[in-house]
Each structure stands twice: as structure tokens, then as C-alpha cells.
Amino acid sequence: MKIYIASDFNLIPKIEGVAKTLEEAGHTILVKWWSRKDLKTKFAVLEPDDFYAEFETANAYERDFNGVKESDVLLFVADETPRFYGGANVELGIALGDNKRCIVLGRLKNSAMYWPVYRAKDINEVLELLTDLERWGLVLKAEDAKDGKN
Question: 73 has which bridge partners?
Fold first, then answer.
């Protein structure tokens, strides 16, 4: 399956382990946005007007937006303690709006908008959910969605 991982730069070690396990299980990670740690450092010091004027900001948006749209499943890698997330929530909203299956590994704050998100306590539960979703035919493949095959 093609998977987009939504998360936070502060969770990079966890994300890298999750991505490696998913790839070893035969899944494809569409965008490895966390590999561009230099952008997080650069962006952290910019004023908002300068940040949004950067070509790299627009490029990151296009890359991540398209990654979510091309995915079969979105996996939200979260902390064990619920907290606020920025862009990852936007990515989750895009995926839910496209009727994609979404899984959270970790915990999110209570919100009715997270109701359709499957919850997993560890990577083994994520792998089981992915297997079950595919077996039950509950994953709308991105290429089928484009062709109107649903």
C-alpha cells in the first residue's frame, strides 16, 4: 500500500523507525518529508511573511499535498501524550476529505473530527490494521479514486 506519514519534526526518530518497518513489510512511503531537517531549522527563524514568500515553502506544500492525495492510507504518528499538531492535522483533513482510511499511532486530543480515524497502540497494530483494511476491501486505492472506481 502507498502510505503518507503525517507527524511532527519533533518525532523524527519514531517516524524513521515506523517508516522502516512499513517498508520492510512491503509498503511504500510516498514522501519522506522528515529527511529535510534543514528546512525545519531554516523555517523556524523566519518571520511569517518571509516564510510564506519562500519558494521552498510552496514546494513543501505541493510535495506533501500531492503525497496525501496519492496515498492509499494516511498514518498519523503522534506522541503518547495528546497535544496540538500543525500541518499534520491539515494533512489528516485532506485525507479524510478524500475518504481515505487514516490511522493514528499514538494519541490525539479528543475531537469529534478524529472519530473516523483508526487507533493503534504500536506498529504491530498498525500492520494488522493495514492487512485487515486491505482484506476487507476498505481501502480505496488512489488510482481507483481518480478513475471513479469506488
Answer: 3, 101
